[in-house]
Amino acid sequence: MAAIATKFALWEVPALDTLKDAKAYILRQKVNNKEKLSREEKNWISYQVNHNTYFKSGIPVRGWRFDFSDILKTFLVNQYGCWYEYKSIDKTALRNFLHGRINKIVQI
């Protein structure tokens, strides 16, 4: 079972207990309990992981890192003549946040 979150900020951050209503906290707890994620939840995790500047496989929330590397897969996407690397739960979640023509998706 993975930890709910780890502190990454050097400054003072709120206690982890105060973040129990955060979506990342709720989803990490759901993954730890081996509950099935809905399509909306999978899409949200995949989007958040790929649209933050701090981590490649985690979601930052107020100085805490919610790591989802245990459920994420790495994909190479050929789009507009270039290859890009993304982390996502599955291809469907990846396609959900990508825009434009996708030539090929390869799971690594």
From TrEMBL:
<protein>
    <submittedName>
        <fullName>Molybdenum ABC transporter ATP-binding protein</fullName>
    </submittedName>
</protein>
<keyword id="KW-0067">ATP-binding</keyword>
<keyword id="KW-0547">Nucleotide-binding</keyword>
<dbReference type="GO" id="GO:0005524">
    <property type="term" value="F:ATP binding"/>
</dbReference>
